[in-house]
Amino acid sequence: MTDEPGPAERALYLTAVRNGGRLHPDDLARADRPALAALVARGLLTPTPAGYTVANPRSLGDRLGSELRTRATRLLLQAGRLPTALGPLAHAYDALRRPTAPTTDTTHVEGNADIRQRISDLTSGCKEEVLAAQPGPRPIEGLQMALPQDLSLLQRGCSLHTIYQPATLADRTVLRQVDLRTRYGAHVRVLAEPYERVMVFDRTVAVIPAAEDRSRAAFITDPTTVAFLVAHFERDWARATPADRHFDPPHPTGARIVRLLARGLTQRAVATRLGLSERTVAGHIARLRELYDAETLVQLGWQMRGEHDA
Question: What is the per-residue pLDDT across 159-170, written as a single tens digit (0 to 9) for each?
Answer without folding.
Answer: 999 999 888 887
